[in-house]
Design goal:
mainly alpha; Serine Threonine Protein Phosphatase 5, Tetratricopeptide repeat; 10 helices; 64% helix
Length: 162
């Protein structure tokens, strides 16, 4: 927690050092991996390293909807084209939605973004009132099968926050 607080207070290097220490002490801890990935995503040019930690989180807890969603969102919407993996994002997002019972609008949003990134217009299968309310501003892009790139991520918004 201290590492996250340090990053949020602008003491980025201190926070990263604390989070990296946490991962070193408990590398198989999904939360530690997620916390470090979140801090890395708040920094420019750390997307690939964040993806590595998100992949570890998913490896350690393959049914963790939060970890699946964070990795799927990054792979579907990352401004860095070398990190984007649309087909993998579709698979991960589908697993996250399934793990959550399909009721979480942020997971449905990620699923729609992943499907659009993969050039699919079949995202409508995830569409319902909850999703429409949560992502109304993105619906036009999804309906046209255009990928949505998370431009907010480019300036340092933590993962999982639309």
């Amino acid at each position: 927690m201290l590492g996250i607080a340090s990053v949020l207070q602008g003491r980025t290097q201190e926070g990263l050092a604390l989070l990296r220490s946490g991962v070193a002490l408990a590398s198989a801890d999904t939360r530690a991996q997620l916390n470090l990935a979140g801090a890395l995503l708040a920094l420019p040019d750390h997307d690939a390293e964040a993806a590595e930690h998100l992949r570890l989180a998913v490896r350690y807890e393959p049914e963790d909807a939060k970890a699946l969603n964070a990795l799927a969102r990054l792979l579907a919407t990352c401004p860095n084209p070398t990190v984007r993996r649309a087909e993998e994002a579709v698979q991960l997002a589908g697993r996250a939605v399934q793990a959550s019972g399909g009721r979480d609008p942020s997971l449905l949003d990620t699923q729609a973004a992943a499907q659009a990134a993969a050039g699919r217009s079949s995202w409508r299968s995830a569409r319902n009132g909850t999703l429409a309310v949560a992502i109304r501003g993105r619906l036009a892009s999804y309906e046209q099968g255009r990928a949505w790139v998370d431009s907010a991520r480019a300036v340092g918004v933590l993962p999982g926050r639309p």
